[in-house]
Amino acid sequence: MAFGWIDEQAELRRRAGLVRTLRPRAAGTPPLDLASNDYLGLARHPEVTEGAARAARTWGGGSTGSRLVTGTTELHTELERELAGFCGFEAALVLSSGYAANLAAVTALAPHGTRIVSDAGNHASLIDGCRLARGTAQVAAHADPDAVRKALDGHDGPAVAVSDTVFSVDGDAALLARLAEACRAYGAGLVLDDAHGLGVLGDGGRGARTRPDSRAPTTSS
Q1: What is the DSSP string of 117-133?
Q2: pTM across the whole model
Q3: Which residues pair with 140 in a beta bridge?
Q4: What is d(CA 115, CA 136) in angstroms, rounded to the nearest whole number?
Q5: What is the CB neighbour count within 10 angstroms for residue 216?
Q6: Where along the chain do its domains lie?
Q7: Spatial distance between the Cα atoms of 211 and 177, rounded to a whole number of angstroms
Q8: Which of 17, 120, 138, 152 is the right S-S partner for 186, CB 3.0 to 4.6 Å?
Q9: At the topology level of CATH, where does 98-220 sit?
Q10: Which reaction does it catalyse (predicted)?
Q11: C-beta of residue 145 within 8 angstroms of C-beta of residue 173
Q12: With 0-12 CB in 10 A as exposed, 13-18 as middle and 19+ as buried, what is 117?
């Protein structure tokens, strides 16, 4: 069989206890969820659900095309304008998911010849972005700006450091001020995934980047 190896790999994963099973939630399930990313409880907020329903009635159930062709609506541009203003950026770009945003950011900012220094605790989407980018990825010890400096030292070409602001698995935070200082010292860019900081940290929930000790030129997804 051409794909017989799939069954073999599946059996190995089963024996190792790595098989995961989906557990669908029923409508009306009591909203006690200790594993959710919905920190602020906005997913069920009446204004959010009504806004989503109103948008569906106005624009339909899908974009009907890619953003570059026919898929961009006034809602997209309005949201991007408001997000940029809220976060203090010149502009914002909304993608379909955080995973897509990280792949887009890393691959766009790490062309051929770029040294990519990725934190060992980064989310899988950042790791995949590093793998897909045309630069050369090097993993640095978790939350260790000195390790980032060491990885950047001696590289003459373009370089970028990639890190979560708040790491989703352990819940600890990157040392942003020192990380930004290391990047400035070596002329490297800094890409931050603030998915778990935006709305929770910073002035008015504007994200980890807005903390007084961590201001730095960044790209946040």
Answers
A1: EEETT--HHHHHHHHHS
A2: 0.86
A3: 119
A4: 5
A5: 14
A6: 98-220
A7: 9
A8: 152
A9: Aspartate Aminotransferase; domain 2 (3.40.640)
A10: 6-carboxyhexanoyl-[ACP] + L-alanine + H(+) = (8S)-8-amino-7-oxononanoate + holo-[ACP] + CO2
A11: no
A12: buried
